[in-house]
Amino acid sequence: MNERIAETAERFESGSAEFYCECADPACTEWVEATLPSYEDVRSESTQFILAPGHALPEVEEVVERHEGFNVVEKVEPTLAAILTHLDPRAEPA
Ligand SMILES: [Zn+2]
C-alpha cells in the first residue's frame, strides 16, 4: 500500500500522467503514460497526438517520435482524404 502511494507521489513529482491513446481506433481504450511537459509539447502542435506504441496506422498517421511508453504521431488525414477523393470516381464529375 505504502509502496503504491510512494510510487504515485514519485510519478506526481516527476510530472507524469496518464492519457488516453489518441489513435484512429474509436474503440481503443489504451492509456499511455507520459510526462506533462512532453504531452504539452505534443499538443502544442495541433496535428500531433500521443499514441500507445504500435497503435499508429500508417495510412492516417506517421510516427514522428518514439518514447518508452508512448509514440508521438503526426496525423496525415488531409493527405488521406485527398487520396480517397482522387480514388472515388463519384467525387469528380465526368
Ligand atoms: Zn490506441
What does it look like?
The model has no long low-confidence stretch (mean pLDDT 81). Helix content is 34%, strand content 27%. The strands form two sheets. The chain has a three-stranded antiparallel sheet, covered by helices on one side. The chain has a two-stranded antiparallel sheet with strand order 1-2. By secondary structure, the chain is of the alpha+beta class. It starts with a helix and ends in a 7-residue tail after the last helix. The chain has three helices and five strands, in the order H-E-E-H-E-E-E-H. Bound molecules: zinc ion.
The main pleated sheet reads as: 3 strands, antiparallel
- Written as H for each helix and E for each strand, in order along the chain, the element string is HEEHEEEH
Helix percentage range? 25-40%
Question: CA-to-CA gap between the ends?
Answer: 69 Å
User: Per the principal axes of the C-alpha atoms, what is the gross shape?
Assistant: elongated
Total of helices? 3
How many domains, as an integer?
1
**Strand percentage:** 25-35%
Strand order, largest beta sheet: 3-5-4
Record field, number of beta strands: 5
Which small molecules are bound? zinc ion
Mean pLDDT over the full residue set = 81
Radius of gyration (CA) equals 18 Å
Helix-strand makeup class: alpha+beta
Q: Low-confidence parts, pLDDT < 50 over ≥5 residues?
A: none
